[in-house]
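Notebook, p. 212. Picked up where the previous page left off. The plan for this session was modest: take the two constructs that came back from the sequencing core last week, fold each one, and keep the raw output in the notebook itself so nobody has to go hunting through shared drives later. Recording the first one now, exactly as returned: residue sequence, then the structure token string.
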Amino acid sequence: MYRVMLVDDEPIIVEGLMRSVEWEKWNCRVVATANDGLEGKRLIEEERPDIVFMDICMPEMDGLRMIASIHSEFPNLEVCVLTGYRDFEYAREAIRLGVTRFLLKPSNMDEIEEAIEAMRANLQKKGNFGDSEPKEAAEEQKESTSSSFIVKNALAYIEENYTQKLTLSDVAEKNYVSQWHLSKLLNRHTGQSFSDILNHVRIEHAKELLKDPALRIGDISEQVGFLDMAHFSRVFKKQEGVSANEYRNRVLGR
């Protein structure tokens, strides 16, 4: 049978879906429910369902990032969004990120059953007939839209927070993915590790600050997020081929 999960912060919605849908008719069974997005993501990782019905407007959750994370890590998972959020552009972006159906609350039974049938058909096209134990999601050779979305948001977050004590864990948490998965995506899309990307961003900003002769190099190092000047000096010379002081003299001497 197909394994189904329901995620909604309104218990009445979860209960209603469990009771009103004849799941057996569709060769489905509900294996887990969740009342918030983070719990839902954790249960998806544990239960490996085939189908998920979920709201994307829940407290402390970025719906589009959650959808992207789910489809990037579990590309064979079918997702139907069931929400009261009525925004055409948001719906279009959700579908671009891999959602099979975007239904507005309150949805009638015909809409829900059509969504189940569409998701079952998609699973069968992938060779999943609901008659075996859940398998690890297949790796994709081509770049997925969801993965690109995650990388874009991760790079933007690094650019916005490079002055802080920033870790791979911080960025992964903001995008609802594991550190391992984010590290893999960054390397695949940019050819660089997280630390290389962060150091590059910091050095590029440092180069701009070095144009101001009134700023001491030690202060610049601190401003761009390095904990000590020795580390800053090593990274700067590795990236630019010259020391920060030599770079400054060259720039100011033009």
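Okay, moving on. Second construct, recorded in the same format:
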Amino acid sequence: MRYWRKVVLWVCAAAALTAAGAWAIPASYLLPSNRVKGWLWRKPPSVYTPRTLYRHLDGAADLYLSYGFRQAKTVEFYRGPEVVTLDVYDMARPIQAFGIFASERPEGAKPLRAGAQGYTVGGLAAFWKGPFYVKLSVVEGKCEALEALAKAASMYLPAPAELPIEFRYLPTAHRVRGSERYVKRDALGHRFLRETISADYNVDGKTAALYISDARAGATARLVYGKLADYYRSRSKDFAPVEGLWEKAFTAVDDSLGRVLVTRQGQFVIIAASREMTRDQLRALVKQVALVKAGGRRGGAPGKNKRR
């Protein structure tokens, strides 16, 4: 209950500020000078908007903009010869903050208990929390206090450190921890697949990936499903309809993904893919999907679930 209270308060405050045209990352959301002993602000924070972000992220600004970037505040801390930059990016929605975080997270990073899914690698610490994506970068010196600075910075962001609610659409049984992903557009190389969450699954030693694309409306989902059906019908000799799975479904073989099973449910298009599982095993995995409404309550019977 406490989590939902925080979510409601945060959403209401953000909506009010946006409606007033006055949204900005509050100064109180930034780690203060000397909060971590001896680490002081070198100068007041810099502010970046969608128009000026390229000045701070030359070559990477477009990626951030594609994930809904709204504003960033940057401040430099120093302690003696050591200098660390703190970047707080407001991505407008938790799912978008998670998306940009996951797109930049390197393999083999060391876990860090800061925000949600924090990590450190080399001279970088990063995490996301609510709609914020946070990075701390060592500019000068070794900075052994990098983790302490990251943990302290997380405390000043009031949003909850929880996976975005969209991931509650995915089954929890057999899900590979930390495998969650979000792609805002062009998922699986298809321009019409947008707002797509996914995760990996391991069932009896066999792996699969499950994707759920939110088309926002049932009519749009039918169009997306039709485009996928046309795509696989023209490219796969193993294309075949699947009966008894929500509104409509088919299976096919994809050169990159292996066997795929595609179905639709209301405004959602669901794809399961594996090089190891059979059609029936993919069907069993897809049947675990129970789409939930925005308030967290599970929907009705298959084929009747609606988000609103």
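Notes on construct two before I forget. Confidence is low (pLDDT under 50) at residues 1-22, 292-308.
Flagging for discussion at group meeting.
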